């Protein structure tokens, strides 16, 4: 295990003399589960190995209480517990719990600890491995300690045992003690080999997982493109591709990317244009750090630019895999390796152009606004070269946008501001040190261009409102101006008096806030933070904390480098200073640039350190302890503001914030809980945080705080559950800790807080995915309350309410409950909305309700089916798919479904046209709808005229089982009209269907067997099936327990056999 813990496990950074902790990541969770299975599993070790006494005990800080070890086999000694069993040599107990320290001396007792821990066993295992980073050395001795390079300890130990056996065999009087020692050594060797095997298994699994997470980079992309260029040419018999080129301009940036900087923010590396021999239109491909995917090609609105929107959701890790999926010719040529490799004598001229451009980035930066599609022939490249040379003489210095500028100010600006601030020697020194701190480290400069945030950037673009020159200013404005003058030129006493006087003003008024800024007060206040006078710092921070609630003041503080200084103050020993600095950072870090500045100057790590405080629920709290708790609260406030950035969330996790937040979550003080839960719910969207919230026992605390009387705290708890409840384990924990009742209680409380309603309904929606939770919601009459919220609510509430009703309606009794509560009509009315997320949920809910015939009557009367059909025209693919799925039960349960469908003008043509979609979910839903439509003969005739047969036949090469199932069902239904069976054969749809029988999904087998049975009624199709090897898998399926599958398989085999007999009869007659 040592090698895995050192090389593969992910650790947080070691801080303040403490060793790092295991990060909450999926990789670490897999490793811990593997170790847990070994420790608990009976096959991992023999009973003798379980009883083997360790050389040194495994000791760690535990959350278990002495009462957990009550019963036979344990002896209580006051606040300690020891095992009755002891080691034979040292007479030490094999298990000892003293205070919060637990020690074990054998695997048997380690297994007992895990059994006693129950749901907390993962926490105990994590703590054990964190405090014993080389457990094998403790268990078997230092000779087996983890080392770098070759480890020969096992071989040496084996040689030692062999020699002892030889010596023992030569001795006439065999000592019993030596024999026992030899047996013990054999056990040690056996256990070491098993631990080594476990280590290798975990390392191999880690390598596979890490390999899967590897992201693309420009070097990999260029390598793949270079290889594919060698197999491209005009002759389709000799080459796999017609051509592959980079799209757009030929400029290569210093980081190797060809995409524009504003697209590099999204991870784009470059864009490719690929022409395959058997695909009519070129493929326009985006090479992103996440993989390769298609884009929509040249934009119709902006000449020379791409439409970066994705036509489908497919992402490929390799370019070759992507082209194989899109081009049958390419796949065949690659698999047969029947192509020529083109030897390039000359390097492409565009690479030389890119190198020239690197020498003069300013001149070529202008070309970012003029994209020319790159052509592979030399004439086009030379024209681009000439155009570039024409542009070069006109060199104008291009200033970067303010958004991308470094936080440091220009030298001229610094010296200009220094003239105003340099009043006394003390302030001059402070100004100099502050300017030094404002310089952005070189390593972080690239970070400016890759920020991700969940918060809108309205503040970033806020228009500054300054009073007009002739406007009458209040008397406070002039009084503040005088006080700022005292701040600039006074001594220490005058400065403190001026600061106190400033605090006497109402600093919550915008007039006073802007007055301080307009007369140069912000510069002075920020300078004061660099002085050595604690009182001056405290006074300045108190003022900055109040006025930083203003949007414009926040931006000004960030521009003047105030954040960097406040981050430095977080290291100060004075706790009042730490509190004020953290609270001010919390106010300022409301926009992206400020959050980025905090991270780049090490603020996240320091804020996380503030969370580490004394026990919160101690019976006796001294003033020192209370101050420590207040520091933690202020740190949580600042982290809450910073956590709206994805990179900050990752930085917080690596700094070890999760266990500290889990500890603070057990506080009983609402003013502490609100920022802690707020931070958790902000971070809960990240998988690593969701995993930690589940495994660290935070769900129990979130559920407990749902019962609080504070609505803001309730809202954040519900929002955290909403984001985490995608996982089944989380949903089960919410139910086990009694969280469903307070969630429903929030709906019945009659609150007007829309944010609270949105969070509560969202949590109910996600929790109702589990059938066990649905039963509890039925008992709590949640459906009636949810239906009552379908009217006069904002869209963010409606999305969650309708989503919850859609999940609850999967249970048949609930469909009737929704109808009785009057929910069908408002649901149908919501189909006319424009919110895409709401439309997706509404169509799902209406589709579930339509499974009930009585509900279908109401939906039909309200013209709901027509509204669903109209949503097939929606541009959003999720809406299209969910609408098509909802149409299926509507057709199945409508009284006169055929006539209803025909009444929709252009409806059948519309649904057939959706077979051209590239989204697999849309295709599967449309195929399911066509299978239902084709039950009516007249409708089948109409869709046949609209070309449904060739469109379905084109889709038969898919590998998606969901699409295969419904496609085969649609083909089976469509065979019942005219010459459709023959047409499917001519369109070469039969042989691909035979491959569906290799699927592991029995539903695919059933629908495929039906389709093959229908197609086998045509002799030509029988021959094709037989040649494709259909008989052998069908014979196996005749023995299936599914009667439909049996019947269809037997029918198909029967048709093939009858054709064979007829052929033999004709031959001999």
**Count of DSSP strands:** 9
Mean pLDDT, nearest integer? 82
Enumerate the spans where pLDDT stays under 50 for 5 or more consecutive residues. Answer: 342-463
Report the end-to-end length measured between terminal Cα atoms: 77 Å
Radius of gyration: 36 Å
Strand content: under 5%
| Largest sheet descriptor | 5 strands, antiparallel
Helix percentage: 55-70%
Instruction: Supply the helix-strand structural class.
Output: mainly alpha
Shape: globular
The number of distinct helices, counting runs of at least 4 residues, comes to 58
Physical arrangement of strands within the biggest beta sheet: 1-5-4-3-2
InterPro entries: ARM-like (IPR011989), ARM-type_fold (IPR016024), Armadillo (IPR000225)
Biased composition (Basic and acidic residues): 380-402
Keywords: Coiled coil
Region (Disordered): 359-470
General description of the model:
With 1069 residues, the protein is mostly helical. Among the domains are: 2-170, no CATH class; 218-353, copper amine oxidase-like fold (2-Layer Sandwich), CATH 3.30.2280; 420-458, no CATH class; 947-1069, Leucine-rich Repeat Variant (Alpha Horseshoe). Helices cover 59% and strands 4% of the residues. The strands form 2 sheets. The protein has a 5-stranded antiparallel β-sheet with strand order 1-5-4-3-2. Strands 6-7-8-9 form a 4-stranded antiparallel β-sheet, covered by helices on one side. The N and C termini lie far apart (77 Å). Mean pLDDT is 82; it is low at 342-463. Residues 380-402 have a biased composition (Basic and acidic residues).
């Amino acid at each position: 295990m040592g090698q895995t813990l050192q090389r593969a496990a992910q650790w947080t950074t070691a801080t303040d003399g403490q060793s790092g902790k295991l990060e909450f990541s999926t990789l670490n969770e897999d490793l811990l589960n593997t170790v847990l299975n070994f420790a608990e599993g009976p096959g991992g070790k023999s009973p003798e190995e379980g009883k083997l006494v360790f050389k040194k005990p495994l000791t760690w800080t535990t959350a278990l209480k002495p009462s957990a070890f009550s019963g036979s086999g344990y002896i209580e000694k006051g606040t300690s517990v020891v095992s009755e069993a002891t080691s034979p040599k040292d007479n030490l107990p094999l298990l000892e719990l003293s205070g919060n320290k637990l020690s074990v001396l054998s695997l048997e007792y380690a297994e007992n600890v895990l059994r006693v821990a129950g749901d907390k066993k993962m926490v105990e295992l994590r703590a054990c491995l964190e405090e014993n980073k080389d457990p094998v050395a403790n268990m078997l001795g230092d000779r087996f300690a983890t080392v770098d390079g070759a480890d020969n300890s096992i071989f040496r130990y084996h040689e030692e045992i062999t020699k002892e056996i030889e010596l023992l065999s030569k001795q006439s009087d065999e000592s019993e003690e030596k024999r026992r020692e030899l047996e013990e050594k054999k056990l040690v060797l056996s256990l070491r080999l098993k631990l080594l095997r476990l280590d290798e298994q975990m390392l191999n699994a880690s390598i596979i997982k890490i390999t899967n997470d590897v992201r693309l980079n420009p070097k990999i992309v260029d390598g793949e493109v270079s290889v594919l260029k060698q197999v491209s040419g005009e002759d389709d018999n000799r080459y796999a591709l017609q051509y592959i080129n980079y799209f757009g301009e030929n400029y290569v940036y210093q980081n190797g990317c060809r995409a524009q900087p504003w697209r590099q923010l999204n991870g784009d590396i470059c864009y490719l244009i690929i022409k395959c021999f058997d695909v009519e239109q070129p493929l326009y491909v985006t090479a992103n750090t996440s993989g390769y995917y298609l884009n929509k090609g040249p934009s119709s609105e902006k000449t020379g630019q791409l439409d970066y929107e994705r036509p489908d959701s497919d992402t490929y890790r390799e370019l070759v895999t992507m082209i194989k999926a899109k081009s049958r010719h390419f796949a065949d040529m690659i698999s047969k390796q029947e192509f020529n490799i083109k030897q390039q004598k000359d390097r492409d001229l565009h690479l030389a152009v890119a190198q020239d451009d690197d020498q003069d980035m300013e001149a070529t930066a202008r070309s970012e606004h003029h994209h020319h599609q790159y052509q592979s022939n030399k004439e086009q490249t030379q024209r681009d070269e000439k155009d570039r040379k024409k542009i070069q003489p006109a060199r104008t210095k291009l200033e970067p946008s303010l958004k991308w500028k470094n936080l440091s100010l220009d030298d001229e600006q610094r010296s200009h501001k220094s003239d105003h601030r340099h009043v006394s020697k003390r302030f001059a020194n402070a100004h100099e040190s502050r300017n030094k701190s404002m310089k952005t480290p070189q390593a972080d400069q690239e970070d400016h261009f890759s920020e991700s945030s969940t918060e809108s950037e309205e503040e970033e673009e806020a228009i500054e409102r300054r009073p007009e020159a002739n406007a009458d200013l209040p008397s406070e404005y002039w009084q503040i101006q005088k006080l700022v003058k005292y701040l600039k030129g006074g001594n220490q006493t005058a400065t403190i008096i001026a600061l106190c006087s400033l605090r006497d003003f109402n600093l919550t008024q915008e007039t006073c806030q802007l007055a301080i800024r307009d007369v140069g007060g912000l510069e002075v206040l920020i300078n004061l933070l660099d002085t050595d006078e604690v009182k001056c710092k405290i006074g300045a921070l108190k003022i900055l904390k109040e006025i930083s609630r203003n949007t414009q003041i926040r931006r000004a503080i960030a521009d003047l480098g105030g954040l960097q200084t406040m981050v430095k103050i977080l290291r100060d020993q004075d706790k009042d200073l730490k509190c004020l600095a953290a609270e001010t950072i919390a106010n300022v870090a409301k926009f992206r640039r400020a959050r980025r500045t905090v991270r780049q100057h090490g603020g996240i790590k320091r804020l996380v350190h503030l969370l580490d405080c004394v026990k919160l629920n101690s019976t006796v709290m001294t003033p020192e302890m209370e101050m420590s708790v207040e520091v933690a609260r202020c740190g949580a406030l600042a982290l809450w503001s910073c956590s709206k950035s994805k990179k900050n969330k990752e930085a917080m996790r690596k700094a070890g914030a999760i266990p500290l937040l889990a500890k603070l979550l057990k506080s009983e003080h609402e003013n502490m809980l609100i920022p802690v839960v707020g931070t958790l719910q902000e971070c809960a969207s990240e998988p690593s945080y969701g995993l930690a919230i589940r495994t660290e026992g935070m769900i129990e605390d979130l559920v407990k705080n749902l019962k609080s009387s504070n609505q803001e705290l309730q809202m954040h708890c519900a929002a955290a559950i909403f984001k985490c409840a995608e996982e089944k384990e989380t949903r089960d924990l919410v139910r086990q800790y009694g969280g469903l009742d307070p969630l429903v209680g929030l709906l019945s409380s009659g609150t007007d807080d829309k944010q609270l309603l949105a969070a509560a309904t969202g949590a109910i929606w996600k929790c109702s995915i589990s059938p066990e939770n649905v039963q509890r919601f039925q008992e709590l009459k949640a459906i009636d309350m949810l239906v009552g919220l379908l009217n006069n609510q904002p869209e963010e509430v409606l999305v969650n309410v309708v989503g919850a009703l859609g999940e609850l309606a999967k249970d048949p009794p609930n469909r009737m409950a929704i109808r009785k509560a009057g929910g069908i009509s408002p649901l149908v009315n919501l189909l006319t909305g424009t919110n895409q997320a709401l439309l997706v949920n509404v169509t799902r809910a209406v589709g579930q309700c339509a499974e009930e015939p009585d509900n279908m009557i109401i939906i039909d009367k309200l013209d709901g089916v027509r509204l669903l059909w109209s949503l097939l025209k929606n541009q959003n693919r999720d809406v299209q798919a969910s609408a098509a799925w909802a149409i299926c039960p509507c057709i199945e349960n409508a009284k006169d479904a055929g006539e209803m469908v025909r009444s929709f003008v252009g409806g059948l043509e519309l649904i057939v046209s959706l077979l051209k979609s590239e989204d697999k979910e849309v295709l599967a839903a449309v195929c399911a709808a066509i299978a239902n439509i084709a039950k009516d003969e007249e409708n089948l005739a109409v869709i046949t005229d609209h070309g449904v047969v060739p469109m379905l036949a084109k889709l038969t090469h898919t590998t998606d089982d969901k699409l295969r199932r419904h496609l085969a069902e649609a083909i089976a239904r469509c065979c019942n009209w005219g010459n459709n069976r023959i047409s499917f054969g001519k369109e070469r749809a039969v042989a691909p269907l035979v491959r569906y029988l290799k699927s592991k999904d029995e539903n695919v087998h059933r629908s495929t067997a039906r389709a093959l049975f229908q197609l086998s009624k045509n002799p030509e199709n029988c021959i094709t099936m037989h040649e494709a090897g259909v008989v052998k898998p069908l014979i196996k399926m005749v023995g299936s327990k599914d009667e439909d599958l049996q019947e269809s398989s037997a029918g198909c085999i029967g048709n093939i056999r009858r054709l064979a007999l007829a052929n033999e009869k004709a031959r001999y007659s």
